[in-house]
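pipeline/complex-builder :: batch 7 item 3
reading input block
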Amino acid sequence: MATLNVVQAVRQALDEELSADEKVILLGQDVGLKGGVFKATEGLQSKHGSRRVIDTPLAESAIIGVAIGASLAGYRPIAEIQFADFIWPAMDQIVSEAARMRYRSHGAWGCPLVIRTPYGAGIHGGLYHSQSIEATFAHVPGLKVVAPSTPRDARGLLRASIQDPDPVLFLEHKRTYRSIKEEVPDDDQAIPLGKAAVRRRGESLSVITYGMMVHESLKAAEEVSGEGIDVEVLDLRTLSPLDKAAILDTVRRTHKVVIVHEDSLTGGLGGEIAGIIVQEAFDLLDGPIVRVAAPDAPATPFNSALEELYLPNAEKIARAIRDLARY
Amino acid sequence: MIITPNPALASDPAIKGSGLSAETLRALYRRMLLSRAVDVRAWTLSRQGRAHFVITSRGHEATQIASAFALQRGRDYFLPYYRSLALALGVGMTAEEVLLSIFARVGDPSSGGRQLPMHFSHRDLRIVSGSSVVSTQIPHAVGLALAARLSGEDVVAVAYFGEGGSSKGDFHEGLNFAAVHKLPAIFICENNGYAISVPQSKQMVISDVARRAEGYGMCGVTIDGGDPLAVYNAVRAARSRAVAGDGPTLIEAKVYRFTAHSSDDDDRVYRSREEVATAQANDPIPLFAQRLKALGILSEDEEQALQAEVTAEVDDAVSTADAHPHPGIDDLLTHVYAEEEAVAWQR
């Protein structure tokens, strides 16, 4: 058993899948010789060869489009988009092509590919190295969206994503990369997609969240625990398709819900989760559904003070928890 | 296959150079006739209100079918665009399969009635499903070529698109990627001079799209897309280069579109009838027939018999396809994901 941080867990999963299946290939900007700007693919080219770990031209649409083509021939490409903020030129290939291939060919063709990309703020990345992109892609049928919060999940969910027959957008919160560590058993297996995990059991109120905000929410839960507020924290882990059963289950236990995401409020996943709860479990609610999210600015500013103001954190979450607990 | 030497073929250097037998040349001609017959019928069905949408390849047949004949059908990957009716038939789809796509019925191998007509896909024939978004298939061809390189198989991937498609970012990104990695891909640009209404002069400053190949460091050729032998020989040479590891080729075939862009377009707005009539005077299909007749490998009687054959084939295809049922509600949410549970709760 080794103690790994998230980026090490990602690298281990990539290495394991490259070793297990010769059809797995890696491609992207800087993934080869350099091993990626966050070192997620460090050492993989020297171990698995430059034929399978491929430095591509700097062209996001081609990185994804070429991955789609290789997947159609039975390969399992893992494409890296260096920062989630740079994914937009590849939007057409992801949405019009990868996500629709199976549906539009009535099942004849499919795209078993993974798009890995670091997302999220809190590392002084400014407008173009901090974005949360998940809501836009979670809206796309045919695509799966995964957002782990811990090293064990990063490894297990990435392995499951690589083995999945459909395209998966795998979002790695870059603030978790080196800040979140845990022991990861060597014999851990792939973790099934589409299943949420309860990170903290509680009876007063549920926080439903994912990614870095799982850790901020756990901090907030500790903060209010001395005040007699017993918070349950549900980590969604997969954002599309959502684990509706787990969402309804936690509502059934606590009857009050705070939804937390770093993505901006309007059109964010919070609205969808709230919609599910209101439609399916209206009678179970003992209070309004509260959303804690970034405000509707285009992305976080570079200035440290503004970044802190922009981002949800344990303090803001604790405030929302206290307000709702009193309701 | 035993190729019977035919002395007459020697008098046509392009035909001689192709090494094609009289039998194959007749088969090529027959496919062109079949494509034209399906094409004409598709427009008739549109006018009758039996086809909601039609987009065809009339005028492009020589390029599409001769290129298919120059490739390894069933082995090479074909990435068509929406003007690839003749290509689909050239690769081996049947008239009935095309009509199923026009009527959007159960059994349509392209999409099960989900896509607009003429968005061909056929897994067994390695015709890869495409969208309506222009040029997105180009990087897919590059990825398939990358896979062929990795597996070491004798396979090439061939993307088709128009000259308008060469303005897209995916054209640049795809060709550059293929060239950098010297992949076994062929890019066939069917330059018919118009992207719906926009003439080539407003698409690019240069007159030949193939000149762009030089900028990518790949081979580029411009050919007469109305001449099936010019096409056959260029594509065969490109395939040889690709599998030899000499990298991709950009082939520009100059053609003319004889119909409006689609059944929703009126081309009288942007091109004169005189221009269309002049182009139609050089229709590749009768020109090819004349050439075969001059070589003594097609007679008037054979020509008429072939015409009757393809007409009957299309008649049959229309009635057989039209007898297929429409997809039902059970089909709406299939194949969103490989595992159907992912969408099951929405039913």
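note: Chain A touches chain B through 46 residues (CB under 8 Å).
queue -> next item
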